[in-house]
Amino acid sequence: MDNCRLSIAVVTLLLLPLFTHTVIADDSEYPYDDDGWLTRIAGPERFALGDEFGCQGMPEVNPFENPDSIASCRTYLTDRVQASRWGASPITFGLQDESPDSTLNQSVGDALVTSGFHVSIGPSIGDGRIEAIDFDAGSLEKNVASIEAIEASMDDGNPVVLRWIAELGDLNVRKDPDVVAWIETQPFWFTTAGEYHTSRVSASITPNGSSSIILNQPPVNLDAWATPGTSIVSLTESTESGLLVESVRWMNGTDLPLLDEMDRHLRVGWRVISGDLHVSIPPGDKVEIQFNESIDEIEIRVGDFNGLTPMIVVGEHVTDLFEWSSGFQDSSIRFTWLIEPRSVTQMDIALPIIAAIVGILTVFQMRRLINRDDPTQFTHGSLFEQE
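^ thats the sequence. predicted structure below, dont judge the formating
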């Protein structure tokens, strides 16, 4: 009886991996295979670094033809990983093509907004509710990446946006190490699509005497990202020295951290650049800014973190997070990963048959060895001989 139970257990263990992925696929309206790296090793590591997880869609489904698939991709992602350190819900979706049919665009826009997406990667669909971020600086792939293309996109006042594709069909693609090394020496704010979008909220100013002001960062909804916003405070009429800042403090009197030129990942702090004050604080917070002299007229506007040029790198069609991220463990670059479940693998029927045969033969061999070398008989025989 014990041998029979052992046989069943061994065969079950051998066959289980072959059928696990098909169970996952059959549970969804849009069949898929799971990417375990989202919850194991790669996902937690990239999340801790500050990367963002967004959606690309369901495998082999065009969202313009089936907008309902947008919500399914969101569910797939939220069941496995948080979108960002600033917020749990994904807000970035990758749209590859702009549909010429405005009716289809409207349906996609409605589906994106209903599912909580505020940013689209790719050409705009003309929906004012969604910020479109398109690629303007090329890719990171070897023999494709271009320093010249990146430099050309640095002067237009918009983020530098690159794509990264680690697999083309069955081929693994290599990054361009020279271009990546050059990028990491440049004055970029390494950000993500969602982080950039949610950070662009300016604070308001309340006078606090002749040489002091209170900076108020507006709050956000409970389920929105709590991304620090960056404001630039400057004199209405510029002078040679600009603003002379004595201190920036929380309302409890604690100093706000001072940033330096090497701070290239979004965090709370302040820095004076060319006479303008750049301040980054979380939503709903306020700080007191003390100047060295009386201030007559100042103005405030939205700024980029630490006065740096924003760079957004987007990993497209990420079906294997480990493969996509493996070459960037020690990089300063932060990624927006557009997650797409894997297509269902067509399993050869011969594989489970072979596994079952191997499992049965293994069990019979184990039983033969156990019957030949019965440990109980060996123990009793030894005791009898000693007596």
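Residues 11 and 50 are 43 Å apart (CA to CA).
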